[in-house]
């Protein structure tokens, strides 16, 4: 995907790791892949965004979704996900 974006003339790319936490893939594997790609494409700026659990409000969102699915709250009450 990075090569496709670069071929489409994107020069600033944000990579969103779809992992719940900052484990081995996010901490080790992904940075190595990005660094390897960046070495081949010096004119491209690539940054890695936080893992899902590190996004602001994510824990609250997940808790609300769980409660809504369990029937503890409803979307009609304006408390759960739509």
Description:
The chain is mostly helical and 82 residues long. It contains three helices and two strands. Strands 1-2 form a two-stranded parallel ribbon. The longest helix has 17 residues. The model has no long low-confidence stretch (mean pLDDT 88).
What topology does this entry show?
Blueprint: H1 2-7, E1 12-15, H2 24-40, E2 45-48, H3 58-70
Parallel strand pairs: 1-2
Report the major sheet: 2 strands, parallel
Structural class: mainly alpha
Order of helices and strands: HEHEH
Strand coverage percent = 5-15%
**Looking across the biggest beta sheet, what order are the strands in?**
1-2
End-to-end CA span: 31 Å
What general outline do the C-alpha atoms trace?
elongated
Low-confidence runs (pLDDT<50, min 5 residues)?
none
Number of helices: 3
Q: Which terms would index this structure?
A:
single chain, 82 residues, mainly alpha, two-stranded parallel ribbon, 2 strands, elongated
Summarize this, please?
This protein is mainly alpha-helical and 82 residues long.
């Amino acid at each position: 995907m990075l090569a496709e974006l670069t071929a489409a003339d994107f020069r600033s790319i944000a990579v969103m790791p779809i992992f719940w936490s900052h484990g081995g893939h996010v901490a080790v594997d992904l940075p190595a892949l990005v660094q390897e790609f960046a070495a081949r494409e010096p004119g491209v700026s690539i940054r890695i965004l936080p893992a899902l659990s590190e996004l602001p409000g994510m824990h609250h969102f997940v808790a609300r979704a769980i409660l809504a699915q369990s029937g503890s709250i409803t979307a009609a009450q304006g408390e759960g996900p739509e």
